[in-house]
């Protein structure tokens, strides 16, 4: 590492202007060095990919070597894949600042000893590793490298050997060229007697405060330069651990989940990439909003989808009544379907005779029965069970044959396994099953449903499930509803484990998943781990979880540790206070949020007559547009169309959430879809309507109240719901 003065202890703002200017000039020169190295590495990577071989260099090279991708003769195919994926990033990765932080480790004093092998070293930290040459020491370390951890975790009380932490300020929207480096800030650590912890240091950093306050435009950004210690702890937990983050609104759950994904991919590329990493979000608008974060962290190619995207690809042509939807999402359905499937298995009702040339082998009913019963008791997937019965029946035949004429050969065994009589026996006791057949058989037949549902489903629930008018002639012609696809997936999973299985799954807004949806994910992460993100207070679906314990069990991660995050980075204090009033009415136990951001503007705009609301909203939006940042108009779903019309009549262009970048700064959003999103200025329309929009209306209002980064205007003719007004 270059650098003659690793213990540069300038206090923030204490430097004379001339000294700061010199420092800035030095850091700009370093920026140029990094950019030149990056350009060379990218060109070299492209060249190697064109040639289809070579040695992995530059970013990720450290972990790739550790993991043996390049070094130990692991297949050329793996190397090719690796290079191709890297080259893809080279092209796709947007330009940006080559580094955002610097660590100067101490060379003397007690903290110098703590520094260990890093004693006296200076490290720059960035989104990706930068090196001038594969064998040269890196110019910039990847933020995920082990030593970078001190950048996030070192405090004056526990300096971890760090003498000073430097943060860099870059012009927003710049390309990360030297001229875009606009400021720097030093934080001396390891000064005996200095107080403070991570959070205090974050608040005292002007650069962090500026980043948190920066107006929100476009999709979500990464927070890698300003991750807080408690967030970093979650990000860096190992691949074998499932964790659950119960985070109040705006505490960075989504950000933490995405950064953990990037961390796992970097640190455990083989383990995680083998299975693949999956990010699950509630809807397309949300996925669009978060889609740029992983690529900006250098990780393209991660699958980001909804639970519905994972389900069997049948066309949805039927719609369920609400009571049917509710039962189909209920955990009891898993047991009902299990029974319906296994109701097909029967015990043998006689002996089995299998011809073998001029001879006939006879197997007795008792021994056949034992095979079926024992296989059932082992609870293998249904299809595995069928093959197990076949194999064990053939083994019985082999014993007979062996006693008569010595051990038969492999060919004989294969021939026996394919015997018509044996397959007929299997079809009788353990018939093949297809998910469509099982589900159609259950929903289309009151007797089958009554048998499978006995003791599990009440009579009205069974009636709600039963296909009355739309009973199909065959499972092929069945018309499936959205919820039916969950049932089909469940049965498919009982028949055979899904082929698609992920090394790690990040689930956002997990409180909103039904038990049956949770099971879709549990099936696909059987050998992996989960990052479960959510907020019980923001549960708005009919089946939203009221506690994490049961939700985590449905997700197949009952041992996941639940960690609360309560420090909010989005909603300012004055607005958090309003939202917190609602918590008492929500019937869930969650710690209240507190805001890292002081201030916030709350305006109430009472409207005299309901008919005037759209025009008043348009007027307020026009006012909001005079200031910087995004504007979100949040309302009950039924109002959205009228509000869009009112805005367009007033000459204000607006868009729907998730639309590809357009010029509009205004988004009109159904409260249901506002989850996970944020706007600098929110115009909340008729909160009383949102509160009354269903059994979870107050939760929905809580979501809507917590979307504003700076300003919240509440517009309506119907007053505030009592729970908030209190
Ligand atoms: N350490 C941080 N530094 C800067 N900004 C941060 C930090 N943590 C979170 N933020 C910002 O706070 C906002 C909220 O983050 P995020 O959407 O991840 O929160 P959340 O807990 O998922 O919120 P919600 O529950 O409302 O969906 C985002 O703009 C995010 O970039």
Give an overview of the whole structure.
The chain is α/β, with parallel strands linked by helices and 726 residues long. The protein is built from 30 helices and 21 strands. The protein has four domains: 20-35 and 91-214, no CATH class; 237-317 and 439-568, P-loop containing nucleotide triphosphate hydrolases (Rossmann fold, 3-Layer(aba) Sandwich), CATH 3.40.50; 352-429, no CATH class; 573-724, Rossmann fold (3-Layer(aba) Sandwich), CATH 3.40.50.300. The chain has a six-stranded parallel beta sheet. The model is unreliable at 1-11, 53-74 and 192-201 (pLDDT under 50). Bound molecules: adenosine-5'-triphosphate (ATP). The site of adenosine-5'-triphosphate has 23 residues, from helix 7 and helix 9. GO terms for molecular function: 3'-5' DNA helicase activity; ATP binding; DNA binding; hydrolase activity. One of its GO terms (biological process) is recombinational repair. Residues 10-21 have a biased composition (Low complexity). Residues 39-51 have a biased composition (Basic and acidic residues).
């Amino acid at each position: 590492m270059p650098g003659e003065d690793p213990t540069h202890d300038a206090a923030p703002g204490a430097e004379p202007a001339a000294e700061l200017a010199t420092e800035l000039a030095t850091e700009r020169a370093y920026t140029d060095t990094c950019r030149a190295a990056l350009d060379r590495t990218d060109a070299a990577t492209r060249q190697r990919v064109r040639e289809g071989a070579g040695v992995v260099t530059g970013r990720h090279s450290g972990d790739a070597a550790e993991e043996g991708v390049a070094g130990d003769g692991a297949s050329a195919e793996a190397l090719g894949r690796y290079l191709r994926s890297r080259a893809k990033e080279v092209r796709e990765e947007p330009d940006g600042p080559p580094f955002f932080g610097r660590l100067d480790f101490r060379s003397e004093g007690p903290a110098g000893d703590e520094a260990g092998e890093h004693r006296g070293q200076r490290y720059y930290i960035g989104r990706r590793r930068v090196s001038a040459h594969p064998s040269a020491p890196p110019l910039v370390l990847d933020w995920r490298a082990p030593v970078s951890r001190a950048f996030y975790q070192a405090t004056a009380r526990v300096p971890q050997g760090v003498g000073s932490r430097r943060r860099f300020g870059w012009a927003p929207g710049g390309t990360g060229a030297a001229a875009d480096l606009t400021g720097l800030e030093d934080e001396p650590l390891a000064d005996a007697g200095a107080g403070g912890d991570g959070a205090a240091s974050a608040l005292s950093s002007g650069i962090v405060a500026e980043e948190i306050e920066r107006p929100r435009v476009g999709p979500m950004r990464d927070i890698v330069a300003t991750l807080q210690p408690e967030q970093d702890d979650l990000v860096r937990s190992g691949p074998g651990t499932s964790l659950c983050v119960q985070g109040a609104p705006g505490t960075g759950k989504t950000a933490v989940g995405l950064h953990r994904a990037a961390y796992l991919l970097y640190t455990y590329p083989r383990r995680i990439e083998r299975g693949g990493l999956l990010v699950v979000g509630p809807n397309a608008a949300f996925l669009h909003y978060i889609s740029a974060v992983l690529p900006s962290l250098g990780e393209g190619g991660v699958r980001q989808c909804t639970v519905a995207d994972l389900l069997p690809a049948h066309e949805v042509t039927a719609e369920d009544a609400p009571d049917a939807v509710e039962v189909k999402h209920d955990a009891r359905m898993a047991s009902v379907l299990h029974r319906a499937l296994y109701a097909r298995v029967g015990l043998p009702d006689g002996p089995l005779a299998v011809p073998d040339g001029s001879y006939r082998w006879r197997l007795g009913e008792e021994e056949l029965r034992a095979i079926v019963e024992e296989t059932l008791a082992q609870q293998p997937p249904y299809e595995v069970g069928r093959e197990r019965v076949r194999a064990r029946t053939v083994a019985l035949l082999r014993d007979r044959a062996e006693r008569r004429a010595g051990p038969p050969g492999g060919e004989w065994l294969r021939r026996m396994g394919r015997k018509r009589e044996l397959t007929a026996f299997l079809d009788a006791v353990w018939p093949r099953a297809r998910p469509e057949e099982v589900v159609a058989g259950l929903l289309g037949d009151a007797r089958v449903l009554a048998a499978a549902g006995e003791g599990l489903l009440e009579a009205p629930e069974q009636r709600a499930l039963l296909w009355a008018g739309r009973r199909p002639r065959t499972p092929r012609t069945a018309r499936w509803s959205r919820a039916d696809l969950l049932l089909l997936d469940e049965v498919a999973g009982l028949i055979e484990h899904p082929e698609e299985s992920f090394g790690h799954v990040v689930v956002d807004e997990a409180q909103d998943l039904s038990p049956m949806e949770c099971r879709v994910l549990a099936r696909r992460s059987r050998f992996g781990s989960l990052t479960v993100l959510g907020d019980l207070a923001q549960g708005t679906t009919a089946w939203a979880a009221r506690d994490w314990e049961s939700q985590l069990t449905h997700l197949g991660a009952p041992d996941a540790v639940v960690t609360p995050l309560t420090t909010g980075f989005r909603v300012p204090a004055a607005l958090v206070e309003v939202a917190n009033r609602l918590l008492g009415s929500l019937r869930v136990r969650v710690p209240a949020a507190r805001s890292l951001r002081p201030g916030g503007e709350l305006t109430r705009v009472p409207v005299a007559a309901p008919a005037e609301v759209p025009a008043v909203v348009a007027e307020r939006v026009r006012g909001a547009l005079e200031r910087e940042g995004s504007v979100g108009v949040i309302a009950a779903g039924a109002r959205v169309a009228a509000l869009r019309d009112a805005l367009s009549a007033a000459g204000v262009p607006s868009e729907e959430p998730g639309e590809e970048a357009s010029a509009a700064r205004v988004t009109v959003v159904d409260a249901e879809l506002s989850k996970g999103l944020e706007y600098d200025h929110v115009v909340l329309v008729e909160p009383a309507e949102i509160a009354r929009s269903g059994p979870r209306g107050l939760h929905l209002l809580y979501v809507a109240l917590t979307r504003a980064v700076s300003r919240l205007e509440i517009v309506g003719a119907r007053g505030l719901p009592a729970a908030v007004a209190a």
